[in-house]
Amino acid sequence: MLRFFQVLMPREEKFFPQFNEHARTLVDGAIALRDLLEGGRGMSEACRRIAQHEDRADAITRAVLVGLRRTFLTPFDRGDMMELINYLDDAIDQMKKTAKVITLFEVESFELEMRQMADIILRCAELTVEAVGLLSAMRGNIIRIIAIAEEIIRLEEQADNLNDAGIKALYQRYKNGYAMPFMVGTEIYNHLEKVMDRLEDVANRIGGILIDEI
Fold first, then answer.
1. Is 106 left (phi over 0), alpha (psi -120 to 50) or beta?
2. pTM over 0.85
3. Can you give the pLDDT at residue 75?
């Protein structure tokens, strides 16, 4: 009987705009991260922008979590929604951590592979926005959502290859000399890889939601 009434009662749809807005902070953060890795005079401003977007994402996350506690009927499983918003937030948090490492070690120039990874991160963020935007009508967009998730996974593998190649190049350059540039460069690569991992987590979570709801 309870299930019957749940089907009839309207579900709270306010969460979809909030998820969409949060996903857009990933694109904004990724653009700023890419700008940061260009080096030069704009680095401080790029760091400031990443922090600003991360603050905005945190505020949206808090609003979603509060809303979930106060809402009886949600668009899809409450636990899935909590995981998705947290995975989205983890991605932009990791962008901020990357910027923090760069600032901490006073890095001012970056390897080609780092910049290429930043381009992939931006592309994955754009795909994430599209996938999240389709959740409000997921039954009519199954094929496209699956394709997006598969594309993000493919891009994550490409970023892994760049990460390995970049670290190997650093090792070859510094193996007989000063070790600090190698250590710092490796740390930056590791953080960029974690950004990609978090974006892949979002794609996998969306795929899981699709399986649960369809």
1. left
2. yes
3. 86
